[in-house]
Amino acid sequence: MLKLFRFLKPYRMVIVLVMVLILLQSLAELYLPTLMADIVNLGVVEGDTAYIWRMGGYMMGVTVIGTIVSVLASLYASRISSGFGRIVRGKVFAHVESFSMHEFDKIGTASMITRTTNDINQVQQVLMMMLRLMVMAPMMCIGGIIMALYKDAQLTLVLLVALPVLAGAIWLIVAKGLPYFKAIQKKLDRLNLVLREGLMGIRVIRSFNRTEHERGRFEDANRDLMNTAVKVNQIMAVMMPVMMLIMNLSTIAIVWFGGWRIDSGAMGVGDLMAFIQYAMQIMFSLLMFSMMFVMVPRASASAVRIGEVLELQPSVTDPSGSASAPRHSSGVVEFDNVSFSYPGAERPALSDISFRAVPGEVTAIIGGTGSGKSTLIHLIPRFFDAASGSVRIGGTDVKSLSQDQLRKHIALVPQKAVLFSGSVQDNIRYGKEDATDEEVREAAKTAQALEFIESMPEGFDAVLAQGGANLSGGQKQRLSIARALVRKPSIYLFDDSFSALDYKTDAKLRAALKGVTTDAAVLIVAQRVSTVMDADRIIVLDEGRIAGVGTHRELMEGSEIYREIVASQLSEEESA
Q1: What residue spans in the chain does CATH classification 1.20.1560.10 cover?
Q2: What is d(CA 14, CA 44) in angstroms, rounded to the nearest whole number?
Q3: Domain ABC transporter, which positions (predicted)?
Q4: N or C: lower Cβ tally within 10 Å for the chain?
Q5: 566 and 556 in contact (C-beta within 8 Å)?
């Protein structure tokens, strides 16, 4: 957790101010019992009303000052903790944005969300408590002991017995609860994962009538979290009764022995009253420590999880001295003996891949499920880095380019259409922020999306639900394609982006694409043979290796695997 506190650097002076304010508050609270003792000993006992009013005024002034500095300390502590949370969330989000797909797979999306929200909130709350208590608790404890000794040193022997007993009880309770605090965060991760899967997969769940099964999964995760939280709260609930028991027994002992001291004339009634208040302040300072001990372990576990994210270095990084970016017109993509393996995989996802895609031509990639088609496409924008060989754009190895330079020249339409909440035109402009209305309209027209957009009451201003839930699969794909087209890059990557389109729309879209991609290299990953038949070059993948390269006619003559794919989808007349 201390590593995270380096982000408090902008608040150093404010932290010093909070410490000073809390110091003043502690001094005010320590001074009040002494004033009360003087009022009783010198005012009430001797019947000096003027002295009572005068000292009462002092007490009122000290109380007002203590209240003001307490409010200011809380205000500034809140600002510091909230600012700290904002900084850490920003750092985590910025760092996560640099992750490759490998890091996302390693941590998991649900856990990433929990770490960015709940875990940071835990650390933020503890920081707030530490700023308030880490000065006050020791001040109240040490100051209370000094003032108690000043009032009556012999009576302090009662505290010498009570304080170790109280500290031991607190330590036992906290030690018992620590493992549960650490377990809560992991179980919260599990609950988030189940909830996220249930919400994202609601259509599949309902279509297979598995609602009760998912409800059971959620109930199990929810109950597991609840049982752990109840258990730790049961343990911590013992603390307050134990504290009150020890404090009340201590008070009885102080009054008992203090009465003897008063009878012997060794101390006054006011001093005994002040001593009792100092004893309570000392014990409550220990309670403050215990509250910190309760929250710090859970926050420490959260801080470790946040630290894991911040310390995890992305496997895909920009080179220290980036090469000059390729020219916009240079859309030549070259694979030279490229191989790639996923971490922990038994065999490579791609092996010895070599081909060349040039502007003005369509290069199609086809193959069975798991043959490595999407993996191949993802190596171009450096979602992953090749294990061996090189991927070049315009003659420059993509590893020697910064990710920003590289991706400026690429437009990717992913296999699963991803849309963002906002209007239709906002989603299309996501590919090019400064696109004009005409460019947006032209991109939608080429993507065969203009017709359904204009059929909406608001047209291009129509608001999309989260993830484009109010659109069909084909409509979402066409908007994703329009988003890529408006970018006008030198390389287009279509990762099975026509699968949700009917054959007629598919054909019209591919015909329209030819007119706007003449200066760009087009790589299409597809499952449907009809989508790739007209490509200038078709690459057939089989278990991560190239099993054939050529036109449709050439592959029909020379590739057995391609003929099997064609035969499974087209009739003999269609494949001719």
Answers
A1: 4-311
A2: 43
A3: 333-568
A4: C
A5: yes
433: which 2 tokens? 């922020």
Query: Domain 416-488 falls in which CATH fold?
Result: Rossmann fold (3.40.50)
Under 8 Å between Cβ of 142 and 305:
no
Amino acid present at 376: L
Q: Could you give phi then psi for residue 571, rounded to 5 degrees? A: -75, 170
- What whole-number distance in Å separates Cα of residue 551 and Cα of residue 566? 13
Beta-carbon contacts of 302 under 8 Å, excluding residues fewer than 6 positions away, are: 115, 118, 119, 120, 122, 123, 185
Question: Does the model's pTM come out above 0.85?
Answer: no
- Structure token pair of residue 293: 């001990």
Q: How confident is the model over 162-179, as a mean pLDDT? A: 81
CA–CA distance, 165 with 160 (Å, rounded to integer)? 9
- Measured CA to CA, the distance from residue 229 to residue 113 in angstroms comes to 20
Q: Name the architecture of domain 4-311.
A: Up-down Bundle (1.20)
- 324-409+490-576: what CATH class? alpha beta
The CATH 3.40.50.300 domain(s) of the chain lie at 324-409+490-576, 416-488
Helix, strand, or coil here: 111? helix
